[in-house]
Design goal:
CATH topology of the largest domain: Pnp Oxidase, Chain A
Number of strands: 7
Number of helices: 7
Radius of gyration: 23 Å
CATH class of the largest domain: Mainly Beta
Structural class: alpha+beta
CATH architecture of the largest domain: Roll
Distance between the termini: 72 Å
Number of domains: 3
Strand content: 25-35%
Largest sheet: 7 strands, antiparallel
């Protein structure tokens, strides 16, 4: 856990709950240590940029949290530097709840998942909405040739805190592409056995 994540997430109410449940002492020790501060280092960048989806939460002016799934081909999330990453806004159902919430409160919470490896990255960030016409260079950097999604705008997230979360209770799941790679040797072996079987049948038929 990074020091900044504790600074942002561990409010007085959270600390009171930790005290009641018996975990406060352990977390207090971490907060007082030289726990590293956040950075989009090489590992974090590689993880984010290899994801094909993430979950993100914002809050409306009425105080209701709103959680969205955002997806695209691997690479649709781009790390810009040590503090920022960006992603395109593909046209969807056109409710614009996410965009509307950001106009009143630019804070957001992200969860990036890697189910096969049971890895989870949490990020707290402030988001800047960028219209297509305002930053052509950013739009070019986020371009995904061949992908069907229509980009309406972009979002640039400036990280406030990061935390690699506990892998417990993450059920391993595999995408079609991941399964294809894992099953390729089995399929090759099956094809070889089928060819061998067909050859043996042909030899028996000639007797």
């Amino acid at each position: 856990m990074t020091k900044t994540f504790a600074e942002v997430a561990f409010t007085a109410a959270v600390k009171a709950a930790q005290e009641k449940m018996g975990s406060r002492a352990a977390y207090a020790a971490q907060e007082g240590s030289d726990a590293r501060r956040f950075t989009l280092d090489e590992d974090v960048r590689a993880f984010m940029q290899s994801r094909d989806h993430f979950f993100v939460a914002t809050v409306s002016e009425t105080g209701w949290p709103y959680v969205q799934h955002r997806g695209g081909p691997p690479g649709f999330v781009k790390a810009l530097d040590g503090e920022r990453f960006a992603f395109p806004d593909f046209r969807g159902n056109r409710q614009y709840v996410f965009v509307g919430n950001l106009s009143g409160d630019d804070r957001a919470a992200f969860i990036f998942m890697d189910y096969p490896r049971q890895a989870r990255l949490k990020a707290l960030a402030r988001i800047h909405v960028v219209d297509k016409a305002d930053d052509p260079d950013l739009m070019q950097a986020l371009a995904l040739p061949g992908y069907k999604g229509h980009v309406e705008r972009a979002f640039v997230a400036t990280i406030e805190a990061l935390d690699w979360n506990c892998p417990q209770h993450i059920t391993p799941r595999f995408s079609e592409a991941e399964l294809a790679d894992a099953l390729a040797p089995m399929r090759d072996r099956l094809a070889s056995l089928e060819a061998e079987n067909a050859a043996l049948k042909a030899q028996l038929a000639q007797r």
